């Protein structure tokens, strides 16, 4: 572990300004053998781009990334200026900590500085002491320092309940997010105590700082008019597991970190890390670099800065909601919960209040926000539990999302090349990883991170091989250098030999044998072994995905979510923009059918420019077809664009959230009027079956349409009365619940009698067990996420429809979803991994 020696502490110096102070610190680093003299210029260059003053009289000057070669070895020096040096904005620096970073050994020293930042008296003592050992003791960890915001939360008087931190990982991001969402429903003050530390139950960061591991006792105290109800709800939330998956499911989602096996036999340079996502890839490496954000420290108009911060927070929150929705559809609710937690980090009342307090003291919105989130991220990084400490990366991700909207200068760093690469990075924030294109990224290797990080979870969900915690030496590899990323062995191999390449190729073939077989057969129809066919289509959200759907083997598009054309913009798309998008998709399908769903806004998808009134329960409010009727101008514009595009190929139009025959009649009447205006041929019309009333009226509705498409996600939440995004209930909202399956059976029966077909486009369609059961119940088209198309088709080709039908009938009589899944597992144990 890196230690600060007495020769690296210089006391009682003076400097006329910041520039000279940096030169003094830089020369001390040269004298200590840490850097080449030229690195001092890089330290000054860094200061010109981004200030290094932390607060409480402490500054940490260091060089730019491109000057890494001028670092001889990792280390720090401490230069004391007792009378202070103006570091900008009238802030005097008394302790200047010069950093030379060739590895990450200096991180522990910097983490200890965060304790000093929150203790002005301690900072003053170190800034004026004449004993170098006082500074050494703190930075070497010999004298403990209080966390920067340890005293921010004080115990409250009131009734309390004893609970236990959820297993296996304790009060980490997901369960803490669930607790915050429950606590915020009540007006009472609510505190959680663990050992000698108290946290605000409505502050995610405050809860994470508790560091409560699985099984540890906690005390929840509430005070206020609804305190009793709050404690009752919180106790129930803890008993339900606080959104934690069952322990038996944890290994698949959160595999235990493991180091590289000792018997790995590679000739090239092996850089060992931890396996985070399986798979083996070969290709050139490329270093990922994020943009540099620069903000002014002070601003003259506090009121304007308050508004800027509030606007940036609101915009970032809207972006996170959209990202959550997008990733939820791509990877499922469990993995998308990462961005749900990010929303709570953004809405942390303590963090927002402290940023506003700094603005009142003359700081700019950007400077105040960065100071607050970086301090808290540093505190989280010090937690002993690696899973909890890993949330520092999440907070940094959220913080930078807001800071991008406040930064005066944004310098974009090197972009990825056009050819596929193995991506190298110090660490990747979850939103960075979520946006990666698996077609362009062969694998990920990070210097930091861990196998339980959210980045690792997302990498696995995107099927990208990943190795984490490989150390900073991976960043010394130059762009374009040949390498092998062995996600199974947890290593990166630089300059592999021919034998290494052969070994990697063999491993890839072995690991991906089934996947490759599915890919090769992706264009084959999904015909069961007893000759029954099920069409497998794709769900898409933008024009580019239409091509991907066809290439994945999709037999059409079963759901095009047109609302994604309306999100993340200031005005709705006009007719020509929509027509161009729909036309592009229809042409890409090359004769295959595409179902365009009309605008489905509302519920958990909000569009600020529509100025919809706030609703107490938006899932039961103006959404889907109801919004189309409220804004008939948007509806007619969209229908015109769709019908114009239908001339290019087989387009089907589908209405969302139809709850009654009168709604369908009105939607059809408007559509027909638009069609007559355009003088184009009629198209097939269908509806989503998402609400129980539509199921109960399916016999009437089926007479008026050409097809049904069951939206299992919404149907499940309405049938079970469980919000699919609820922090506690969401895991129980399983679309394979027998009650939901009975709704499917009733829908199919009504459709058969009317002579129309039934598809399914919710998450259950791509579920291994769901694909079997829906097919067994008579659903003849499954529309799934693009990556799932080949595997769903292969799964259906491995079973008989007779077995699927028999199993589906038995599933209708099960007690709950768990019993249904157990039944399918037992019946199809050998059919391609059905579970």
TrEMBL record:
Signal peptide: none annotated. One of its GO terms (molecular function) is metal ion binding. It is found in: Cytoplasm. InterPro entries: HPr-like, HPr-like_sf, PEP-util_enz_mobile_dom, PEP-utilizing_PTS_enzyme, PEP_util_AS, PEP_util_C, PEP_util_CS, Phosphohistidine_dom_sf. GO terms for biological process: phosphoenolpyruvate-dependent sugar phosphotransferase system. One of its GO terms (cellular component) is cytoplasm. It catalyses: L-histidyl-[protein] + phosphoenolpyruvate = N(pros)-phospho-L-histidyl-[protein] + pyruvate. Residues 158-245 form the HPr domain. Its cofactor is Mg(2+). Keywords: Cytoplasm, Kinase, Magnesium, Metal-binding, Phosphoprotein, Phosphotransferase system, Plasmid, Pyruvate, Sugar transport, Transferase, Transport. Its main location: cytoplasm. NCBIfam families: PTS_HPr_family (TIGR01003), PTS_I_fam (TIGR01417). The phosphoenolpyruvate-dependent sugar phosphotransferase system (sugar PTS), a major carbohydrate active transport system, catalyzes the phosphorylation of incoming sugar substrates concomitantly with their translocation across the cell membrane. The enzyme II FruAB PTS system is involved in fructose transport. Belongs to the PEP-utilizing enzyme family. This is Multiphosphoryl transfer protein. It comes from Azospirillum brasilense. The lineage of its organism: Bacteria, Pseudomonadati, Pseudomonadota, Alphaproteobacteria, Rhodospirillales. The gene is ptsP.
């Amino acid at each position: 572990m890196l230690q600060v020696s007495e020769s690296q502490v210089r006391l009682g110096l003076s400097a006329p300004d910041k520039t000279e102070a940096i030169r003094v610190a830089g020369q001390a680093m040269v004298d200590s053998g840490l850097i080449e003299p030229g690195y001092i210029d890089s330290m000054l260059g860094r200061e010109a781009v981004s200030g290094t003053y932390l607060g409480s009289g402490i500054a940490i000057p260091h060089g730019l990334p491109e000057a890494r070669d001028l670092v001889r070895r990792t280390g720090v020096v401490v230069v004391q200026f007792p009378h202070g040096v103006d570091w900008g904005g009238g802030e005097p620096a008394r302790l200047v900590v010069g950093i030379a970073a060739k590895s990450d050994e200096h991180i522990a020293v910097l983490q200890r500085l965060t304790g000093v930042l929150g203790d002005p008296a301690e900072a003053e003592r170190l800034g004026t002491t004449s004993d170098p050992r006082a500074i050494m003791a703190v930075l070497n960890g010999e004298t403990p320092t209080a966390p920067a915001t340890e005293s921010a939360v004080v115990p409250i008087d009131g009734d309390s309940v004893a609970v236990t931190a959820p297993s296996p990982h304790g009060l980490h991001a997901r369960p803490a997010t669930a607790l915050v969402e429950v606590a915020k429903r009540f007006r009472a003050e609510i505190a959680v105590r663990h050992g000698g530390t108290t946290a605000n139950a409505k502050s995610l960061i405050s809860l994470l700082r508790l560091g409560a591991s699985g099984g540890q006792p906690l005390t929840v105290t509430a005070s206020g008019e609804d305190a009793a109800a709050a404690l009752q709800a919180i106790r129930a939330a803890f008993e339900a597991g606080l959104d934690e998956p069952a322990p038996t499911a944890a290994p698949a989602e959160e595999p235990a970190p493991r180091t590289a096996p000792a018997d790995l036999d590679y000739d090239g340079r092996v850089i060992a890390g931890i396996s985070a996502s399986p798979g083996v890839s070969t290709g050139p490496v490329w270093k990922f670099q994020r943009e540099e954000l620069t903000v002014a420290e002070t601003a003259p108009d506090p009121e304007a800065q308050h508004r800027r911060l509030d606007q940036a927070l609101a915009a970032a929150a809207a972006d996170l909601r959209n990202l959550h929705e997008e990733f939820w559809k791509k990877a499922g609710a469990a993995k998308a919960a990462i961005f749900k937690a990010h929303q709570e980090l953004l809405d942390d009342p303590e963090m927002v209040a402290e940023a506003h307090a700094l603005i009142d003291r003359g700081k700019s919105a950007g400077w105040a926000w960065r100071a607050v989130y970086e301090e808290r991220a540093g505190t989280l990084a010090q937690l002993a539990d690696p899973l909890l400490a890993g949330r520092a990366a999440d907070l940094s991700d959220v913080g930078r999302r807001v800071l991008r909207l406040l930064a005066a200068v944004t310098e974009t760093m090197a972009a990825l090349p056009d050819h596929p690469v193995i991506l190298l990075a110090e660490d990747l924030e979850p939103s960075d990883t979520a946006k990666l294109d698996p077609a362009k990224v062969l694998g990920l290797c990070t210097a930091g991170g861990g196998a339980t990080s959210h980045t690792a979870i997302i990498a696995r969900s995107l099927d990208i091989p990943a190795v984490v915690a490989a150390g900073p030496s991976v960043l010394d590899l130059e762009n374009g250098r040949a390498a092998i990323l062995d996600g199974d062995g947890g290593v990166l191999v630089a300059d592999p030999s021919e034998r290494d390449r052969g070994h990697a190729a063999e491993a890839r073939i072995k690991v991906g044998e089934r996947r490759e077989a599915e890919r090769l057969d992706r264009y084959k129809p999904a015909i069961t072994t007893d000759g029954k066919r099920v069409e497998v289509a794709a769900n898409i959200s933008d024009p580019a995905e239409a091509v991907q759907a066809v290439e994945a083997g999709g037999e059409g598009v079963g759901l095009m979510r047109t609302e994604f054309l309306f999100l993340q913009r200031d005005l709705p798309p006009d007719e020509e923009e929509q027509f161009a998008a729909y036309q592009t998709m229809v042409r890409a399908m090359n004769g295959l059918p595409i179902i365009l769903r009309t605008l489905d806004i509302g519920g958990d998808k909000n569009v600020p420019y529509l100025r919809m009134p706030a609703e107490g329960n938006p899932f039961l409010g103006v959404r889907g077809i109801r919004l189309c009727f409220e804004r008939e101008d948007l509806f007619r514009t969209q229908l015109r664009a769709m019908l114009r595009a239908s001339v290019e190929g087989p387009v089907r139009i589908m209405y969302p959230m139809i709850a009654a025959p009168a709604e369908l009649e009105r939607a059809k009447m408007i559509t027909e009027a638009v069609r007559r205006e355009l003088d184009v041929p009629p198209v097939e019309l269908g509806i989503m079956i998402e609400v129980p009333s539509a199921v109960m009226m399916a016999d009437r509705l089926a007479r008026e349409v050409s097809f049904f498409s069951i939206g299992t996600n919404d149907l499940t939440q309405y049938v079970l009365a469980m919000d699919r995004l609820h922090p506690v209930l969401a895991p129980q909202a399983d679309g394979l619940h027998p009650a939901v399956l009975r709704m499917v059976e009733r829908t199919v029966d009504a459709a058969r009698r009317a002579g129309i077909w039934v598809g399914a486009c919710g998450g259950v369609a791509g579920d291994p067990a769901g694909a079997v059961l829906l097919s067994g119940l008579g659903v003849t088209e499954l529309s799934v996420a693009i990556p799932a198309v080949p595997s769903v088709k292969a799964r259906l080709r491995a079973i008989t429809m007779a077995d699927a039908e028999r199993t589906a009938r038995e599933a209708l009589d099960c007690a709950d979803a768990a019993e249904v899944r157990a039944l399918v597992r037992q019946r199809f144990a050998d059919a391609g991994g059905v579970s």
